[in-house]
Each structure stands twice: as C-alpha cells, then as structure tokens.
Amino acid sequence: MYGWFEENGLLLGLALLDGLAYAALVFMVAVGLNLVFGVLRVLNVAHGSLYAIGAYAAASLGLFAASSGLPAWASLPVLLVAAALVGGILGPLIERLLLRRIYAQEPVLQLLVTFALFMILEDAQKLIWGTQPVQNDAAMRLLGNFDVPFGADFIPFTAYQLFVLPGVAVATLVGLAWFLRRTLTGRVIVAVTTDREAATAMGIDASRIYLLTFTFGAILAALGGALSSPTASLVPGLGAQTIVLSFAVVATAGLGQIEGAALTALMIGLSRSIAVYFLPEAEVLTPYLIMVAVLLVRPQGLFGVAETRRV
Amino acid sequence: MTTSASMSRRSVLAGAATSGSLLMAGSGAEAQPAKPAELKIGITTFLSGPASVFGVPAKQTAEMLAEQINAAGGIGGVPVRLSFVDENPGTEHLVGEFRRLVQSEGVHVVFASISSGSCLACTPLSDEMRKTTILWDCGTQRIFEEGRHPFAFRTQGYGTSEVLAPLLYLLKHKPDFRSIAVINQDYAWGRDSWELWRAGMDAMKPGVRVVAELFPRFNSTDFSTEITRLLALRPDVILSTSWGGELVTLVRQANERRLLERSLMVLPVAEASLPPLGRSMPAGHIIGTRGDHWVNHPRPRDKAALDRFVNGYQQRFNQPAIYPCHHMFQAFSALQAAYTKAIAAKSGGWPNDQELAAAFQGLTFDTPTSRITIREDGQGMEDQIVGLSSFGTLPYAVPEKMMLYPATNVSAPVGQKSVDWLKTLRAGLENTAGEAI
Amino acid sequence: MSDVLLSAQGLRLAFGGVKAADGIDLDVRRGEFLAIIGPNGAGKTTFINMTTGYLRPQAGIITYEGQAITGMAPRRIVARGIARSFQLPQLFTEHTVLENVALAIAAREGPWSPLAPLLRPRWREEAVDLLERFGLTSIAGARADALNEGARKLADIAMAVALKPRLLLMDEPTSGVAANEKMEVVETLARVLRAAQVTAVFVEHDMDVVERFADRVAVWSQGRIAALGPPAEVLSDPQVQRDVIGIERHAAA
Amino acid sequence: MRRTETLLAIGGAALLVLLAILAPWLRFVLTIALAKGVAVLGILLLLRAGQVSFGHALYLSFGAYTVAFLAPAMPEALILMPVAMLLSGLLGLVIGLFVSRYRDIFFSMLNLAISMVFYSLLEKLYHYTKGTDGIRVGVPRFLGMALERDQFEWAMFGTALVLALAIGCFVRLYLASPMGQALSAIKTRETRLEFMGLPARAVLLSAYVLSALMGGLAGSIIAMTTRHVTPLLGYWTVSGELVFIAILGGAGAALGPFLGAVTFELVRVYAAASFADAWQAILGLVLLGVILFFSRGLWGMVESLWRRRA
C-alpha cells in the first residue's frame, strides 16, 4: 500500500504523460497561428476552421483509403496527406482571394475578414460532412496500446497518444526551427517577423513570403486537426473551441515565437492534466490563468521581444 | 411540402407588416377561429453546433412526418406547415425567434427545444403568449417542478425517470458495487443528472464510495487524462450521462485503453451514439435511450408502426432513427391526438389556443412502442427501457436483458421535487419498479 | 535664482557594448540656445532621451531648477516645463495640424470637461495663432500625414512650443527642411522661442545654423563632450574641425 | 454632416418606433439591437484608440447576470439598470487598470482570456448560476408600476431607444472632446502623448471604463428583454459579434453602431427564417462584402451617398 505522497507522485507521473500528448495537440494548432501572426500580423480566426476541416478531411480520406484497399499502415501517412491537401489548397485561396486585398487596411478589418470566413466555413463543413459524428480511428488502433506500470498495477495508454503525437510535435518544432534558422526563405520569414518595414525596405518580396507563410500555417492547422482525428469523433463546432485556446497560446508565447508556442503548449498541457487529477474544477481556467500570469510578468509574452518605439 | 426553406424574405416582411392583427389572434385566445388553410408548427431545434447531432435528425423526422400527415389529408383536414428555428445562437436569439413564430408567422403550436436552457426560456413565453408549446426533447425536471405552465406539455419522459431507470437496473444487475466515478459533460444536464443519480443512489444504497467526479469541458474532444485517472482509480462503476459526439469519443478512447474491461459503464443516453460507435462499444454495459423506443423492443405496442417508422427513416436518410427522431414522432402523435380530441369536444369546430391546450390535459397518445399520458402538471409519462449492450444482426450495439420501467414507477409524483422524492426511495425498489421483457 | 536651468552630472548609459553616454556633464543656462553637434552615434539623441525621461541613465544625475528629475516618467518631466521635438516628427497622423497643436494645448491645460470639444474657441484661437507664428496657417486644416517633411518638422516643433515649456530640446529641427528654406525656418523658430523666453537645446548638423543661432556649442564624441563654448571659439578649434565638422561635411557631401 | 447626423438619428428613431408598432415581434428584436448598439458604442471608443477588445461580452453578461441575481430582491427596472451599469463599470475599472497597460493583440487577447474565465465561472458555479440552463428573470416593475407583458415590452423598447439616443449624443461629444481626440492619438502616436504630458493609459482607461458601463447597461436591457440569461451571452463569439457590428455599422460616427446592430439583428432574423441551416454563412458573407467593398461600414456608405447628393 502506498502512502498519500507516493501515490500522488505516481499520479503526477501519469499526468505528465497525458499532459505531454495534450500539449502536442495544442502546439500543433497554435504554432501555425503564431507563425502566420508573426509574419502577416493577421490574427486568423479561420485557423480554427482549417483545423476542423483538416480533421474531417483526414477522417474521410482515411475511410476512403481503407475502402479502396490500402494497407492499414497507410492510415498514418494519410493524415499528413490530408493536411497537406487541405492547407495547400485552402491556404493560398484564402490568402490570394481575401487577405491580400486588405493588408493595407486596419488590423481589425483583417481580423474580421477571417471571422467572416470562419462563419462561412462552419456552415460549409456542415454541408459537406453533415452533423452526425464522423470518425476514423484506424491510425490510433494501428499501433495498439502500451502499458505503463503504475505501482503494482498498470495503465494502458495508446501508443498513438504516447509516441505519435509528441513525436510529430517535436519533429515539427525541430523542423521549423531548422527551416527558420538555416534556410534562406526561413531567415527571410524571421526577418519579416522581427521588423517588417526594414525587411520590405531591403527589397524582400513580401507578397511571396506572405503566401508561403499563410499556406504553411494553414497546413499546420490542418495537420493539428488531422492528428486529433483518430482519437476524437468529429462534430460541428470543433473550430470555435480550438481557436480560443490557440489565441491564448499565441499571446502567451510572444508573437511569431515557435519555441514560445512549444513552452506555452507544454505549460497548458501539463497544468491541465494536473488539474484533472487534483483540482478538476479548475481545468478549463488553466490556459487563461497561465496567460494572465505570464503577461503580468512579461508583457510581450514568454519569448516576445519588446518592440522598440523609435523616437 | 412547405417548410421554412420556401419562405421568402418578402413573406417575412409581409408578416411583419400584418402581424398587428395576428397579435390580436395570439392574445385573444377566446376568439373563435375559423378552420385555417394550414396548421403552422414552429420547431426549435439545433441546426448547427455539436447538438445538431440530435437536432438535424429530428428536423428530418419532422419533415418526413409532415409529408406523411399531409399526404393523408392533414390534421383535422388541415395540412401542416413547418418553420424551423436554430437553437444554437443562444437564448437571446431564440426567444426573439419564438416571438416571431407566434406573432409574425402566426404558428398554431410550437415544438420547443432540445436544450433545457432553451426550454426554460421558452415555457414562460408560452404562458405569456398563451400559445401551446410542446417540449419535445428537453429533459430538465425544473420546468414543471418550479412553476405551472398551462400551455406547455412535455411529450416524453424527463431527467428523473431517465436517470432513475438505469440506476435501478444497476442496483439489480450488479448489487455489490462499492465504488463509482462519474464523468459528465460540464453543463446543466451533466450536473443535474449527477445530482439526481446521487440522491437516488445514496437513498437506496448508502455507503457507495464516489471516487471521482469529473466534469470535462462541454464539447471536449480529448478525454485521455480523465481516462487515465479512471484507469488508476479502478471504480466498480462509471456513470456518464454524456451524449452525441462526446460520448462517442469518450467510449472509443476508453475502450481502446481497456477501461471498459476494468469498470462497468452506465450510459443513460447511449442510444444515439451507438450507431457511430459500432463495434467500439463493448458488450455488457448498461445503456439507456431516454425512453422505451429501442429498435429491438421485444414487444412494441404496434410492431408494424415501429418498423414503418424506423425503416422509412433509414431508407430516406440513410441513417438509423435515433431517439430524437422518436421524440419528434411523439410530439406529432400528441399533436394529432390533441387536435382530434379538441375538435371532437367542439363537435367539429376548430379549436382556439385555449381549447387546444385544454385537450392536452390528461391526453393519451400512441407511440410505436407504447402509449404516453400527459399528467396534470404537463409532464408526459414515458416508460423507460434499460438493458445491457449486446450485438445481434445490426452493426451496432442494442440492449439485451431488457428491463421495462413504467413511467409512474420512476417519476416523481406531481407536486414533489425530484431530488426530494429520490431521497425518499428505499432499497428493494429495484426489484419492484421494473419488469424484465 | 540660479543661472543654471538644467544640469547633467556624470550621465552614463551603455547599450550592450556601445557607450551612448560615457560621463556627460553639462549645464544649460537659463535663456541660452545651446547647440549639440557631433557625428552620428555620438550619443546626442540619447542625451535628449535621458533628459526627457525616455531613457534612464545607468549612472549620474539630472537636475532641473535644482531638483532631480533623473529617471522620472516623461509625463512628469513635461509637467515641470521641459518639452522636446523629434528627429522623426511624431505627429498624430489622423488629426489635422490644427488639432495636433490643440491636443498639445489640451495636454498643457488639462484636466478638462469631457464634453466640451477639443477645438473650443480659446484653444482654437491659441493654436491658430501659434501656427501663424510658425508660418503654417495655410496647412492648418491639412491632415498630418499629408504634409511634406519640412512642414511636419515645423508642426512637430510647434506642438512642443504649444506646451509652453521653459526648456525645449529639439532633435535636428532642420533636417528634412529644404536647403533654401532652412535659414528662414530657423529664423522663425528663434524669433518664436526668444519671444516666449524659452531656453533651447538643439541637435544640429548644419554648421551655418549653429554659427548663426547658437549661444554655445557642445561637441559630442563617443558619448562624451569633447568641447564646449561659444560657436566662434569651438568651431575654429582645429581638432573639432577635423573630428566633427570634417566628418559632417564629408557626410553632407 | 453634423446636422445631418442629428436628423438621421431622429429619423432613424422614428422609423424604429414605426416598425415596432407595425410588427410587435420586431419590437423585441429592435430592443435587443438598440441594447447591443449601446454596447458597441463602447467598442467604438476603444477602436478609436486602435484597440480591439475581444472580450466585451464579459460586461454584457455581467450586466445581465447582475439583473438576474438582483431582480428577485429589487424588482424595479429603473433601479436594476443603473446598478448593473455601475457594478459593471466598477469591474471595468479593476480589469481596465490591468489591461490598459497592453496594446494590440495583447489587449485583445487579455480581454478574451478574462471574459472566458468569467464565462467558465458562469458555467462552473452551477449552484449559483444554474450553469448553462441559465436564470430566469421575472417581469420587474417599471417606475413602481407592475406592467402587463406588452406594456413592459414597450417600456423596455422606449427606455432602450431613449438611452441609445442619450448615450449616442454623449459619445459624440466625448469623441470630439480632448479625451476622445486623445484616443485616436493613442492609435497613431502614443509616445508623443506621453511626451506632451498626457497619460495615455489614463485616457484609454477612461474609455475602457465607459465601455464597461455601456456593456453592463446593454446587458441589463438584454436580460430584462429576453428575461432569461445564460452563460452563452458571455462566450467569445458574442464579443466577436460586437466588434463585427462595430465594423459593419462603421466606426466613424456614433450612429454607426446602431445602424450596424439593427442591420445585424435583422439580417440574422431573416437569414435564420429563410435559411435556418445556413444563417451563419449568410452573416459571414454580408460581413465579408461590407469589409471588402465598403471598409468604412454602413455609416460610410450613408456618408458617401449623402455627399454625392449634396
């Protein structure tokens, strides 16, 4: 028999595992939003819709792949393909047809354009996928369970949750960091994020960078959705939930900061799962409380750089 | 068939201009109306958001039934016409729409709401506008226990019977359980249903240890943390009154991680989520349907009618008819019965609002599975059937070892508050309240 | 009453490794026009920024009228009678020039009734009058973002003057002003300031302007004051000529 | 244009009264629209400073719940309204002291976060708030008189209309005053304000408190009109809706919010009536059209029409 402390210590360990998986999902959807905000300075409300559409598309494509006889292992790459398709098609369309027309306008108008888009896409999803739960958990079942010892007992976790989600998130983080630091395009994106005026003054083709970044952000949003689809059943209203949380992450992280997004996601993920264990009623409040606390101490966000006001 | 979709903007504007006179009709319930050209029914239901899982099938059912009724000559010779309102935008929008339905559309009757909050907001309006309102799906016990609503009638069961029946089933099926955990959606039904359950459980089987009370955020898509905690706690029983996509997600995630091998689940609102769950729903857990309308009901009142309805729906919409479809059926059935009764009482004359409402008092109407009587407080007495999940010919789970609980055995008597009544229950009721069928 | 209006002692401030102020000691005398010259990056603007509260020196003390103002918020410093203008004009771009000046007047006068308009008769009159003195009457109704560089510069200074300061710090008041208008602009400015008995410190690159209008010149070099004195004396110093003016001329060419 | 605006305001008010007489059910919709217009006036003040609050549903729901909680003890509409307004203003002062330090996205998101905390509490504190079921508000007295439902609805409509006109006038004066003008100065050159001795934070804070007062008042009107309050009134999409209305109506004048609010509510009602399945998409399309083709909103359209005629 374990004492209170030992038992709770073990629970804390479990909470860590759950928090990690949740953090991975939060990170995937928030990092794209943060990247887009950093470069375009547009807070994209429709990011939540892209997430939802990515999830739906992944489930549908997975079901289609299975019915057309693709082997079971294909259910994992299908998630990536669906995300790339959704982001790769919708991203450029949205950037070219809508956002492009309003870059010169006030930020609130840009925000509202994406809000309008969000409303339209919400109904569009319903039109395409209906209102009944859509699901395809092939990817989750593929890898089966992994038993984590828990005292004399054991707790089964899905390998998907334990390895795939954090794995993809870490790969995304490392890949993004490498891309932004080591490639020319990446450096240009960073330059635009840090000082838009200076970067455009240096002759950077902002239009191309905007298109690229937005598409990239859209793919990340869709990927976030696609990754969540094997464990969740998809119903209307998915996007609205996701986007508020991502907003909180972006503001907490600091604009355009991918490491900040990762750290914030981790904080949110862990505190949420710890809350579920020890203070379930506080669970929904944690992301917002974290944000308020962080901004009290660091008004520019965790990794944000104070904008120098030139006089 | 005419539904709201065909209503043009112009007709709404015209309605706005002429409804001064309609108001008169609405408030003067004693006026003697002539037989109208159409019987207008306003229906509030979820057309967007997560609860559209229920709302849209119900809407489809209403359209199908209206078509059938009209093909058969309408109600009392008058064809019905439906207008739908989306509940999702919130109360402030909904009560405005309720007024529009009554004052501008001039509906004769309103079918109100899936959400309890919507019902609570609409019933006072039914009092004020003296417009017969059928509460066709919402379950909150607060409606008729906290006030009198002479124009509102619920044509199905409610939270108390829908929670008590599975509790009684559990007490009989697994009388030796010692610990329980609850994982409900964090909103009124999730909280209310747990309060009802707890009151009944503590009265009939004191001393059960409640090891966890989890109320994850409404519309959550990830329950892995909660599941881990439940796996670690190993409660004998896990109760969840969740519904829709969330229940599907919860059961799938729980099943994948073999939680359902460790604990017995009690799912009072399982039925609508069983088709999408398919084989992910393991056998041997307690499932309910907010009524008695299981597709495999062993002895329905009218087998042919049940098959006709269920198969007709399946064929037309390529989906199984889930419980909201049945609740919509009940609302239509009650409406037809009430009009027949009112017209007969008036020797063939068309009833006004007051007379229509009067017809609902003590009304008995047929459903494919049984017969429902509306009590003097407006509450419908719908029997409950609970069973254990099992697999037969269908690709999804249906109940076996079913117990039927007559509504009068599992409903708080008129004038008593549910929680107070549940506290008076005593052990042994599980052996007398229901019968195996 | 002391002859010294503003006094800086031992000001130090470094950004990373760059010493923008490396022991600045300077007394500004009541009523004088003091020019600050020196190459870019010598710390001239930093001095103004420290004096007006935008930057806090890491060491040293600034006193004004004998009282320490080191590290005070800009707002507090303005309230004591120190105003500044900016190298890059800081105008409210959605307002007209008249409104810009009126806002400055309002700032000086506050607190006010929240329901009387900004352009209440008394303030409007004063703003019109001030703009006239700056020769900006013709553009009083123009939006601030529609002006040319010279006009923006003047409007920027007019706003500072509208605060009725006793000490005005100007960061390159003539940069951006067309060469043929420059003398006239400075002439106007000097007249307005003298009439209002304002002490002025200004950063300037044009040696002709310095020679003609400054009572004293301070030469900045790498965060220090390399020379200080009347223009005739300082500008003829061979070392100043070589180190500062040479560079300036070179840069100008 | 000034006189025109006054004339338009009077004409608009007359039109609303006429509509309310002709179509009783519209009276309800219009009361809500007027209340939202009042809340949007507050949003407009903040927009002047370039700040977008994505959390003002907080004050709306706070005002509404204040009424819901106090109505049983104090069933008098003309007391409930100012009390809800003042308490909401007090809350705005406390929160404003914190958020007025932040700008742009941080300002937006902090407001969002705080409003979501409040929303979650409304849902969580089930025993006090009845969770998502919400609280029913009885018909309060009006000026000490117990009114019939119909009379009470007229009273609320009239009160909302009078308040809308009065607060619209106030906002117009405020915007022309140094306080209001300093707001737009925050947007264009905040540092200069500081160097002129004007505390930008205080300027923003006063606007913020005013917006909280207006939000609370609007919430109290909504509560007494719908007579049932649920947490949904505090959800972030409602905050978005307020900003939506501000832009739809046009942020250029005090009349804009009401133009926007009435249009918004009517479009929503008609879209919901004609296309119950896709009303959201229709609203989205309307907003998209307005932003892409008339970025100054409906008021901007009215203005340019007027200019063309003049």
What's the topology here?
The complex is a heterotetramer of chains A (311), B (437), C (253) and D (310).
Chain B: H1 9-27, E1 39-45, H2 52-71, E2 80-86, H3 91-105, E3 109-112, H4 116-129, E4 133-135, H5 142-145, E5 152-154, H6 159-173, E6 179-183, H7 188-204, E7 209-214, H8 224-233, E8 237-239, H9 244-256, H10 259-262, E9 264-267, H11 274-277, E10 286-287, H12 303-317, H13 323-345, H14 353-360, E11 364-366, E12 371-374, E13 380-381, E14 384-390, E15 398-405, H15 407-410, H16 418-423, H17 429-432, E16 435-436
Parallel strand pairs in B: 1-2, 1-3, 3-4, 4-5, 6-7, 6-8, 8-9, 9-10
Antiparallel strand pairs in B: 10-14, 11-12, 12-13, 14-15, 15-16
Chain C: E1 4-15, E2 18-29, E3 33-37, H1 44-51, E4 59-64, E5 67-68, H2 74-79, E6 82-84, H3 97-109, H4 121-133, H5 149-162, E7 167-171, H6 179-195, E8 199-203, H7 207-213, E9 216-221, E10 224-229, H8 231-236, H9 238-252
Parallel strand pairs in C: 3-8, 3-9, 6-7, 7-8
Antiparallel strand pairs in C: 1-2, 1-4, 4-5, 9-10
Helix pairs in contact in C: 3-4, 3-5
Chain D: H1 2-22, H2 24-48, H3 57-70, H4 77-99, H5 104-124, H6 126-129, E1 135-136, H7 149-176, H8 178-195, H9 200-226, E2 228-229, H10 236-249, H11 256-274, H12 279-293, H13 297-309
Antiparallel strand pairs in D: 1-2
Helix pairs in contact in D: 1-2, 2-7, 2-8, 2-9, 2-10, 2-11, 3-4, 3-5, 3-9, 4-9, 7-8, 7-9, 8-9, 10-11, 10-13, 11-12
Q: How would you describe this protein?
A:
The complex is a heterotetramer of chains A (311), B (437), C (253) and D (310). Chain B contains 17 helices and 16 strands. Chain B is an alpha/beta fold and 437 residues long. Chain C starts with a strand and ends with a helix. Chain D has helices spanning 2-22, 24-48, 57-70, 77-99, 104-124, 126-129, 149-176, 178-195, 200-226, 236-249, 256-274, 279-293, 297-309, and strands spanning 135-136, 228-229. Chain D is mostly helical. A two-stranded antiparallel ribbon of chain D has the order 1-2. Chain D is globular, with a radius of gyration of 19 Å. Chain D has one domain (2-309): ABC transporter involved in vitamin B12 uptake, BtuC. The interface between A and D is large, with 47 and 43 residues. Chain C: One of its GO terms (molecular function) is ATP binding. Chain C: Residues 6-247 form the ABC transporter domain. Chain C: This is ABC transporter ATP-binding protein. Chain C: Keywords: ATP-binding, Nucleotide-binding, Transport.
